[in-house]
Write a structure and sequence with these properties.
Blueprint lengths: L9 H68 L8 H18 L3 H4 L1 H24 L3 H8 L2 H53 L4 H63 L1 H4 L7 H27 L8 H16 L3 E6 L8 H22 L4 E8 L2 E8 L14 H10 L3 E6 L5 E8 L6 H4 L3
Parallel strand pairs: 1-2
Antiparallel strand pairs: 2-3, 3-5, 4-5
Helix pairs in contact: 1-2, 1-5, 1-6, 4-5, 4-6, 7-9, 7-12, 10-11
Length: 451
C-alpha cells in the first residue's frame, strides 16, 4: 500500500508486460508469416515462369533438329513423303518461339529471342526452297541447299542462341534460388524466436490444445467411417450394374437367340415348299432372309459378349485372351498375355468380374489416350494375392494433371475387392497399371451382390 492508501501498481505493470509479450509475439508471427507467404508465392511464380521458359528453350532445339533430320532423310532417300510432318513440326516450332517471347520479361534474355527468330526465318526460307525442289524432282539442288554453308551457319547460330539463352536462364534461376534461400533463413530465424516466446507464454493453454486434439481424433474417425460407407455404396452400385448386365445377357441369349434360331429353321424349310415357283424369286428372297437373320444372331452374340463376356464362365484367363484378341483385331495393336495363373485356381465371380473390368478399362484408356505400339498383360498369383499387370509403351501422363483416364473408377473397384491399384507413368515413358487383389479376404455383403 502507498501512503495515500492506494494499492501498489506493480501487479498492473506485470499484467501489462505479459500482454506486451503476447502482442509482440502476434506481431512477429504475422510479419514472419506474411514474409514467408510472400517469399513462397514470389519464388513459386518465378520458378513456374522459368520452368515454362526452360521447357520452351528445350523444346525449340529439339523441334529444329527434328525438322533438319526430316529434310535430310527425305533428300537422301529421295522420298518426298518423309516431309509429311514438316508443316506440323514447323508450326509447333513457331508457336514455341511466340510463346517464349510472350513468357519472357527479362531484357537481357529478350535480345536472344529475336536472334533465334531471325535465324529461324533464314532457315525456313532455305527449307521451303529445298522442299519445292524435292517436289519438282530436283534432288541434287535440294541436297545442295540443305548442306550448304548458309544453312549450316544459320543452324549453328540458332543453336548457339538457344544455348546462350539456356545458360543465362540457369544463371538467373540459381541467383534467385540463393536470394530466396537467404530470405527463408531470415524468416525462419524470426519465426523460431516467435515460436519460442509463444511456447513460453502459451503453456497455460495446453489443456485446450489437448481438447482440440481429441476432437480432431474423433473427426478423423468419423471421416474414416464416412469413407468406408462411401466405398460400400460404390461397391453396391457397381454390383447392381454387373448383376443387371448378367441378367440382360442371359435373357438375350436364351430368349431372343433361341427364337431367332427357330425362325431361321422355319425359313430354311420354305424353299422346298416353293420349289415349283417358275420365277425362282422366292428362294432368293428366303436366302436373303436367312442372311439377315444370321446377322441378327451375330449382333445378339456381340451384345451378349459386351454385357457379360461368355469367356468369364470358363475362367479369367480365357476372358482376358478374348478381350486382347478383340483389341488386336479392332485397333491393330500387338497385345501379349502372360498367363501365370495356377491351373487349379478357382476364382469367384466377384473377383473375376472385377479384375476383368479393370483390364477392360485399362485397355480402353490405352486406346483413347496412350498412342501405344505394344501392350503386355500379365496375370499371376503370389502369397494368395492375384496380380494384374497392364503395360504399354505409349505417351504416358502425369497423374493429377489429367482426370479423364478412368483411374478413380479402377482404383475404387480394386478397393471394393479389398485390394489396391497403383499406376506408374510419366510423359513419353509409357504407363503401367498394377492391380493387387487378395484372394483370402472375405468380401463385404455389398460387394457380393455383384455375383
Amino acid at each position: 500500500m502507498t501512503d495515500s492508501g492506494l494499492p501498489s501498481p506493480k501487479p498492473v505493470r506485470v499484467h501489462l508486460t505479459l500482454r506486451a509479450w503476447l502482442n509482440l509475439i502476434v506481431v512477429m508471427l504475422i510479419l514472419t508469416t506474411g514474409l514467408s507467404v510472400y517469399v513462397d508465392v514470389r519464388d513459386h511464380a518465378l520458378h513456374v515462369q522459368h520452368l515454362e521458359i526452360k521447357n520452351r528453350l528445350q523444346e525449340i532445339p529439339r523441334l529444329k533438329q527434328q525438322l533438319s533430320s526430316m529434310l535430310e532423310i527425305a533428300v537422301l532417300d529421295r522420298n518426298i513423303l518423309r516431309t509429311g510432318n514438316y508443316e506440323d513440326v514447323n508450326s509447333r516450332l513457331g508457336s514455341s518461339l511466340e510463346s517464349l517471347a510472350e513468357l519472357n520479361h527479362n531484357p537481357r534474355l529478350s535480345s536472344e529471342i529475336p536472334a533465334m527468330r531471325d535465324a529461324r526465318v533464314k532457315l525456313q526460307i532455305i527449307e521451303a526452297s529445298a522442299i519445292e525442289r524435292m517436289r519438282a524432282g530436283q534432288w541434287q539442288e535440294a541436297r545442295l541447299l540443305l548442306f550448304s554453308d548458309a544453312y549450316v551457319r544459320a543452324t549453328a547460330v540458332f543453336d548457339l542462341d538457344a544455348a546462350s539463352a539456356q545458360a543465362f536462364l540457369d544463371g538467373e534461376l540459381a541467383a534467385e534460388v540463393q536470394l530466396f534461400d537467404r530470405l527463408r533463413a531470415a524468416t525462419l530465424a524470426l519465426r523460431l524466436v516467435a515460436l519460442a516466446l509463444l511456447l513460453w507464454v502459451g503453456a497455460r493453454y495446453s489443456r485446450q490444445l489437448r481438447q482440440q486434439l481429441r476432437e480432431q481424433t474423433r473427426s478423423q474417425a468419423d471421416l474414416s467411417a464416412t469413407q468406408k460407407t462411401l466405398r460400400d455404396l460404390t461397391a453396391h452400385e457397381q454390383a447392381e450394374r454387373e448383376a443387371g448386365r448378367k441378367r440382360v445377357a442371359q435373357e438375350i441369349h436364351d430368349e431372343l437367340g433361341q427364337r431367332l434360331t427357330v425362325l431361321r429353321m422355319d425359313v430354311a424349310m420354305l424353299p422346298r415348299a416353293v420349289a415349283a415357283d417358275p420365277a425362282g424369286l422366292l428362294p432368293a428372297r428366303v436366302a436373303g432372309l436367312k442372311a439377315g437373320i444370321d446377322g441378327v444372331l451375330s449382333i445378339v452374340r456381340d451384345i451378349a459378349g459386351k454385357l457379360r463376356p461368355a469367356a468369364l464362365e470358363i475362367g479369367l484367363a480365357p476372358a482376358a485372351e478374348a478381350l486382347l484378341q478383340e483389341f488386336r483385331e479392332t485397333l491393330g495393336i500387338p497385345c501379349e498375355l502372360e498367363n501365370r495363373l495356377p491351373a487349379n485356381l478357382v476364382l469367384d465371380d466377384v473377383r473375376a468380374t472385377g479384375v476383368f473390368r479393370i483390364l477392360q478399362e485399362s485397355l480402353t484408356n490405352i486406346a483413347r489416350h496412350a498412342q501405344a505400339r505394344q501392350i503386355k498383360v500379365s496375370l499371376s498369383v503370389r502369397d494368395q494375392v492375384l496380380r494384374l499387370l497392364v503395360q504399354d509403351d505409349g505417351q504416358g501422363f502425369v497423374e493429377g494433371k489429367n482426370t479423364a483416364f478412368g483411374v478413380p473408377g479402377m482404383r475404387e473397384r480394386a478397393t471394393s475387392l479389398g485390394g489396391s491399384l497403383r499406376i506408374y507413368s510419366g510423359l513419353n515413358a509409357g504407363t503401367t497399371v498394377e492391380a493387387l487383389i487378395p484372394l483370402d479376404v472375405a468380401l463385404s455383403p455389398a460387394t457380393k451382390i455383384r455375383s
